Amino acid sequence: MQIRGLLLLLVLILLAATTEAGKTKKEKAKKDGSKCEDWRWGPCVPNSKDCGLGYREGTCKDESKKLKCKIPCNWKKKFGADCKYKFESWGGCSAQTGLKTRSGILKKALYNAQCEEIVSVTKPCSSKIKSKSKGQ
Protein backbone atom coordinates (compact mmCIF):
# COMPACT_ATOMS: atom_id res chain seq x y z
CA MET A 1 0.00 0.00 0.00
CA GLN A 2 2.82 2.41 0.80
CA ILE A 3 4.39 1.88 -2.64
CA ARG A 4 1.07 2.73 -4.33
CA GLY A 5 0.81 5.89 -2.24
CA LEU A 6 4.36 6.93 -3.21
CA LEU A 7 3.68 6.22 -6.88
CA LEU A 8 0.48 8.24 -6.77
CA LEU A 9 2.30 11.14 -5.10
CA LEU A 10 5.07 10.96 -7.72
CA VAL A 11 2.53 11.04 -10.56
CA LEU A 12 0.79 14.08 -9.03
CA ILE A 13 4.10 15.93 -8.67
CA LEU A 14 5.04 15.19 -12.29
CA LEU A 15 1.61 16.31 -13.48
CA ALA A 16 1.89 19.61 -11.59
CA ALA A 17 5.38 20.22 -12.97
CA THR A 18 4.36 19.61 -16.60
CA THR A 19 1.28 21.82 -16.22
CA GLU A 20 3.43 24.72 -14.98
CA ALA A 21 6.00 24.16 -17.74
CA GLY A 22 3.29 24.11 -20.39
CA LYS A 23 1.95 27.58 -19.60
CA THR A 24 2.59 30.21 -22.22
CA LYS A 25 4.54 33.38 -21.55
CA LYS A 26 1.31 35.39 -21.58
CA GLU A 27 -0.18 33.23 -18.83
CA LYS A 28 2.96 33.61 -16.74
CA ALA A 29 3.01 37.38 -17.35
CA LYS A 30 -0.52 37.71 -15.98
CA LYS A 31 0.76 36.67 -12.55
CA ASP A 32 2.32 40.12 -12.00
CA GLY A 33 -1.00 41.37 -10.63
CA SER A 34 -1.54 44.05 -13.28
CA LYS A 35 -5.11 44.37 -14.50
CA CYS A 36 -4.22 47.06 -17.02
CA GLU A 37 -4.69 46.05 -20.66
CA ASP A 38 -3.74 49.23 -22.54
CA TRP A 39 0.05 49.20 -22.30
CA ARG A 40 2.07 51.75 -24.30
CA TRP A 41 5.58 50.53 -25.09
CA GLY A 42 8.55 52.68 -26.01
CA PRO A 43 11.38 51.73 -28.35
CA CYS A 44 14.03 49.19 -27.44
CA VAL A 45 16.97 51.05 -25.88
CA PRO A 46 20.27 49.14 -26.03
CA ASN A 47 22.39 48.97 -22.87
CA SER A 48 25.51 50.06 -24.75
CA LYS A 49 26.32 51.38 -28.23
CA ASP A 50 23.47 51.15 -30.76
CA CYS A 51 22.65 47.43 -30.81
CA GLY A 52 22.53 44.34 -28.63
CA LEU A 53 20.65 43.64 -25.40
CA GLY A 54 18.60 46.40 -23.86
CA TYR A 55 15.23 47.21 -22.39
CA ARG A 56 11.86 48.67 -23.38
CA GLU A 57 9.75 50.75 -21.00
CA GLY A 58 5.99 50.44 -20.89
CA THR A 59 3.34 52.50 -19.16
CA CYS A 60 -0.32 51.94 -18.41
CA LYS A 61 -2.18 54.46 -16.28
CA ASP A 62 -0.05 54.74 -13.11
CA GLU A 63 1.94 51.55 -13.71
CA SER A 64 5.26 51.14 -15.50
CA LYS A 65 7.32 48.11 -16.49
CA LYS A 66 10.61 47.30 -18.18
CA LEU A 67 10.99 44.37 -20.58
CA LYS A 68 14.20 42.90 -21.91
CA CYS A 69 14.68 43.30 -25.65
CA LYS A 70 17.38 42.98 -28.29
CA ILE A 71 18.33 45.03 -31.33
CA PRO A 72 20.22 42.88 -33.85
CA CYS A 73 23.57 44.45 -34.71
CA ASN A 74 23.12 43.80 -38.42
CA TRP A 75 19.65 45.39 -38.48
CA LYS A 76 18.90 48.45 -40.60
CA LYS A 77 18.92 51.10 -37.89
CA LYS A 78 17.07 53.44 -40.21
CA PHE A 79 13.88 51.37 -39.79
CA GLY A 80 14.20 50.39 -36.14
CA ALA A 81 14.01 46.91 -34.67
CA ASP A 82 10.24 47.11 -34.11
CA CYS A 83 9.30 47.57 -37.77
CA LYS A 84 9.24 44.41 -39.89
CA TYR A 85 9.05 44.71 -43.69
CA LYS A 86 8.51 42.34 -46.62
CA PHE A 87 11.02 43.29 -49.30
CA GLU A 88 10.77 42.66 -53.03
CA SER A 89 13.74 41.44 -55.08
CA TRP A 90 16.65 43.75 -55.81
CA GLY A 91 16.20 45.81 -58.95
CA GLY A 92 18.75 46.16 -61.71
CA CYS A 93 21.94 48.12 -61.32
CA SER A 94 21.71 51.82 -62.20
CA ALA A 95 24.62 52.82 -64.44
CA GLN A 96 24.34 56.45 -63.28
CA THR A 97 24.53 55.86 -59.54
CA GLY A 98 26.11 52.38 -59.33
CA LEU A 99 23.39 51.32 -56.87
CA LYS A 100 20.66 48.66 -56.70
CA THR A 101 17.32 49.54 -55.11
CA ARG A 102 14.43 47.63 -53.58
CA SER A 103 11.42 48.60 -51.53
CA GLY A 104 9.62 46.97 -48.64
CA ILE A 105 6.04 47.09 -47.40
CA LEU A 106 5.31 47.16 -43.67
CA LYS A 107 4.41 43.66 -42.49
CA LYS A 108 4.27 44.15 -38.72
CA ALA A 109 4.78 46.99 -36.23
CA LEU A 110 5.72 45.57 -32.83
CA TYR A 111 4.71 47.32 -29.61
CA ASN A 112 2.67 49.94 -31.53
CA ALA A 113 5.85 51.39 -33.05
CA GLN A 114 5.67 54.34 -35.43
CA CYS A 115 6.72 52.78 -38.76
CA GLU A 116 6.71 53.98 -42.34
CA GLU A 117 4.34 52.01 -44.59
CA ILE A 118 6.84 51.74 -47.49
CA VAL A 119 10.62 51.99 -47.25
CA SER A 120 13.31 51.93 -49.90
CA VAL A 121 16.89 50.69 -49.51
CA THR A 122 19.92 50.81 -51.78
CA LYS A 123 23.22 49.00 -51.94
CA PRO A 124 26.22 49.21 -54.23
CA CYS A 125 26.16 47.05 -57.34
CA SER A 126 28.36 43.98 -57.16
CA SER A 127 31.62 44.35 -59.02
CA LYS A 128 32.01 40.58 -59.18
CA ILE A 129 30.69 38.76 -62.20
CA LYS A 130 29.08 35.49 -61.23
CA SER A 131 30.31 32.66 -63.38
CA LYS A 132 27.97 29.90 -64.40
CA SER A 133 28.68 26.38 -63.29
CA LYS A 134 30.66 24.39 -65.86
CA GLY A 135 29.36 21.01 -64.67
CA GLN A 136 27.28 19.31 -67.36
From TrEMBL:
Annotated signal peptide: 1-21
GO molecular function: growth factor activity; heparin binding
One GO cellular component term noted in the UniProt record for this chain: extracellular region
Cell compartments where the protein resides: Secreted
Sequence ranges assigned to domain Pleiotrophin/Midkine N-terminal in this UniProt record: 23-79
Pfam families referenced in this protein's UniProt entry, alphabetically: PTN_MK_C, PTN_MK_N
Main location: secreted
PROSITE patterns hit by this protein: PTN_MK_2 (PS00620)
GO biological processes: positive regulation of cell division
Keywords from the UniProt entry: Developmental protein, Disulfide bond, Growth factor, Heparin-binding, Mitogen, Secreted, Signal
Domain Pleiotrophin/Midkine C-terminal: 80-135
Its job: Secreted protein that functions as cytokine and growth factor and mediates its signal through cell-surface proteoglycan and non-proteoglycan receptors. Regulates many processes like inflammatory response, cell proliferation, cell adhesion, cell growth, cell survival, tissue regeneration, cell differentiation and cell migration.
Family: Belongs to the pleiotrophin family.
Protein name stated in the entry: Midkine
Organism: Manacus vitellinus
